[in-house]
Amino acid sequence: MTRCAIMHVDAYDEDKVLEAMRGIADATAFPDVEGKTVLVKPNILSDSYPEKAITTHPAVIKALITLLWEKGAKRILAGDSPGMQTGRFNPVNSGLRKVAEETGAEIVDFRESTRIHEVEGIRIPMTDAIDQADIVISAAKFKTHQLMSATGAVKNMFGLVPGLQKSPMHLRARTPESFARLILSIFREAHVDYAVIDAIEGMEGAGPTNGQPRHVGLLMGSENALALDKAESVIMGYRSVPIIEEAEKRFPGITDAEYPLLNPEDLIIRDYRRIPEGKKTTIRTLFLPNLLSRIGIATDGRAYPEFIHSECRHCLKCVNVCPAKALEMKGGRIHISRRECIRCYCCHEMCPFDAIKIK
Ligand code: SF4
Ligand code: SF4
C-alpha cells in the first residue's frame, strides 16, 4: 500500500522545513534520484509574494531541492508557466528565482519548448521538461479552487501546459467532472513520481488566487499524489472533490494509503472556508441545465462570475484569458455574455485585483 506522510510544521523556518521534508521522505517511498535529472513543479500560479499563499512557499521548494541534492540528484529543473505570463518566466516575487540561485537548480520556462501529447483525443502541448526529466515531482500548495473545490498535487500538473494554451481546454471540458477527467489524463501523462503539498499556510475562501491565507501548519508528502490530494480534501472538510471522485471511479482503490505519521481524519478543520459543493452533472440533469445556460440561467449550482466594477483596474487579464470569448470591455466596464460563459472561472483565477466574485 502507498503511504502519505503528514507532519506538523508551524512556520517557514528553513531548518525546520528541511528537517520535516527529510522525515516525510523517510516515511514514504521517496524515489531513487541518484544520478538522475529531476523536474520540480511548484505552483507558481502568478509571481506573487509568498505571504499571499498563492504559490508554493520558497522554503518548501528549497527544502525539497536540498533533499534531492542530498540524495544524489544529478540535475534539478524547477519551472512553471503562469496563465498570464508576459515575457520570460522570471519568478522573483514568489522567491523561486532566489531558491534556484541558492541551490543550483535550473529555472525552466515551460513556454520555451513544448511537445504535443494526444490526451483523451485532445492534442495538448506540454513542456518538454518532462521529457528531459527522469523523475517528476509535484510541489503543490494547499488551496481551495473555485471550479475544482481544491487544488493540490494533481491539479498542479495542469501547469505543464504552457501559459494561455490552458484556456481552450476548458471549452473541451466544461463541467467540473469532465475537467477533472482531463486533469487526470494530463497528470497520468506526466508520470509524477512523488508529490509534496505545502500546507503550512494554506488558502481558504475564493481560491486559488483571491482567497485568504489560513494557517494550517502541515507539510505533506507521498509517492501517491492522488492519495495526498484526498488527504488534503479531507483536512479541508470536503466530502468529495471532483478529481478524487473521478479518479476513484476510473481506478478503484487508487487513493488507498497508509498514514505512518498523522492521519488526515484527525486533522479536519471544521471551519475551513470551502467552495460550496455544486450539484452533480448527470445525464438526467445535463440537458435542461445546458439549455437554460444558453440563455444565461444557471441551474446546476454553479454561479456566473460577477464583476465588482469599483475594484476593476481595467487590466484586461480576464478578457484575454476567457476561453469562451464571453467578456469585453465596453464603456470602461467589463461586460459578460452569460450565453457564452461556460463558468470555467479562469477570469476569477486570473484577476489580480479581486474584482470578480463567484457567489
Ligand atoms: S482582470 Fe479584474 S481588474 Fe483586470 S479587467 Fe478583469 S475584472 Fe478588471
Ligand atoms: S467569463 Fe469567466 S467564467 Fe465565463 S467563460 Fe469566460 S473566463 Fe470562464
A few lines on this structure:
This protein is of the alpha/beta class and 359 residues long. Helices cover 28% and strands 24% of the residues.
Largest sheet: 9 strands, mixed
Work out the helicity level.
25-40%
By DSSP (H or I, 4+ residues per run), the number of helices equals 11
Identify every distinct bound molecule in the structure, by name, code or SMILES.
iron/sulfur cluster
Write the layout of secondary structure elements.
Elements: E1 2-8, H1 14-27, E2 37-42, H2 58-70, E3 75-80, H3 96-103, E4 106-109, E5 114-119, E6 122-127, H4 129-132, E7 135-145, E8 149-151, H5 168-172, H6 176-190, E9 194-204, E10 212-222, H7 225-236, H8 242-250, E11 257-258, H9 283-293, E12 305-307, H10 317-321, E13 327-330, E14 333-336, H11 346-350, E15 356-358
Parallel strand pairs: 1-11, 2-3, 2-7, 3-4, 7-9
Antiparallel strand pairs: 1-10, 5-6, 7-8, 9-10, 12-15, 13-14
Helix pairs in contact: 1-2, 2-3, 6-8
The structure holds iron/sulfur cluster (2 copies).
